[in-house]
UniProtKB/TrEMBL annotation:
The protein's name: Aldose 1-epimerase
Organism field: Paenibacillus silvestris
Any Pfam family matching the protein: Aldose_epim
GO annotation terms (biological process): carbohydrate metabolic process
InterPro entries (UniProt xref): Aldose_1/G6P_1-epimerase, Gal_mutarotase_sf_dom, GH-type_carb-bd
A single MF term (Gene Ontology): carbohydrate binding
Length: 333
């Protein structure tokens, strides 16, 4: 199997490309280490939503609904306030319609390429974001830490590994999510109507008009309940919903099935992610976002046990890490 890892461009932006047999992937170091492409070139599948050349300027302004953006800390914080161990950090209110801070500080800034290369069986790239005093992220989260993100491409698909290393002298918040943007359809000859999905959701959080959890659950509709077993269109209704995760058989995942092609895309995200967000752009066919998230939206402002809402604290010297994988399964016909 041919493997390659090399520096190149994607729509004019600096990229590191990985190739392994039929698969290829590209990551954008200078735009938040966004994994902007994952493809099966033999079958012409494009699993992630990629910006066209004409869309690149808009993408750079708001690099959220293409590829796999890293959100740290993820989602919304009421009035931009982030209470932490007796202090309150003030984030910019960048979503005027809700009066909240949205999506954190790492998805649109440069990361460092630490290394890339190949072995006989895979190609890989590792990127790092080292936050120290004077860094733009330190302005809002005054902790010394390193985010390190590795992508590995091989015959089994794409593996993602991320770690957070607290290199400072005090406990820091560790809250991560991905605004993963999946094409539906991802196959060139399929239609959105050929697609159904399954997702390991548990309970649905009730959300306020400001898109903040009230702390209560709301009943699943009969259609939503189908997410747990599959056979539901990703566009069955408009979704901007927040759920707990409920791993099945020890795994936390989303499966997207193309009935026409007889193939299933599996997004296995790891059990450290205790929440799901799902957004489908007002049920507009073409793509949707199953977003694995460590923490409840607005978690530092919610009066619930930290373990229940994924409010993870890293002590000095500690490392948190998790792995995820995107791969396909051929279905029996």
């Amino acid at each position: 199997m041919t493997t390659k890892a090399y520096e190149g461009t994607f729509q004019g932006e600096k990229a590191v490309w990985l190739q392994a047999g039929r698969y290829e992937a590209a990551v954008l170091p200078e735009i938040g280490a966004n994994l902007i492409a994952f493809r099966d070139n033999e079958k012409e599948y494009r699993f992630l939503r990629e910006p066209s050349l004409d869309e690149m300027e808009a993408f750079k302004e708001r690099p959220i609904i293409h590829g796999i953006p890293v959100l740290f800390p993820p989602n919304r914080y009421e009035d931009g306030k982030f209470p932490w161990k007796g202090k309150v950090f003030q984030f910019p209110v960048n979503e005027p319609k809700t009066g909240n801070h949205l999506h954190g500080f790492v998805h649109d800034i440069p990361w460092e390429v630490e290394r890339f290369g190949t072995t006989e069986g895979d190609s890989s790239v590792t990127l790092a974001l080292k936050v120290r005093e004077g860094h733009s992220v330190y302005t809002y989260l005054p902790f010394e830490f390193t985010l390190r993100l590795t992508y590995v491409l091989n015959q089994f698909g794409l593996q993602q590994h991320i770690s957070v290393h607290n290199e400072g002298q005090e406990a820091m918040p560790c809250l991560i999510a991905y605004h993963t943007t999946i094409n539906a359809p991802f196959a060139p000859n399929s239609q959105a109507a050929d697609y159904s999905f399954k997702m390991t959701i548990g309970n649905r959080w009730e959300m306020s008009e400001r898109m903040l959890p009230t702390g209560e659950y709301q009943p699943l509709s009969s259609e939503e309940a189908k997410m747990k077993v599959g056979d539901l269109s990703p566009f069955f209704e408009s979704m901007d919903n927040h759920y707990t995760t409920a791993p099945q058989n020890g795994r936390n995942y989303m499966e997207l099935t193309d009935a026409r092609e007889g193939v299933k895309l599996v997004y296995d995200v790891g059990t450290s992610y205790k929440q799901w967000m799902i957004w489908n752009n007002g049920a507009t066919e073409g793509f949707f976002c199953p977003e694995p998230q460590m923490n409840l939206v607005n978690a530092p402002n919610v009066d619930k046990p930290a373990d229940e809402i994924g409010l993870v604290s890293l002590e000095p010297g500690e490392v948190w890490s998790e792995s995820a994988r995107l791969y396909t399964i051929e279905l029996k016909k």
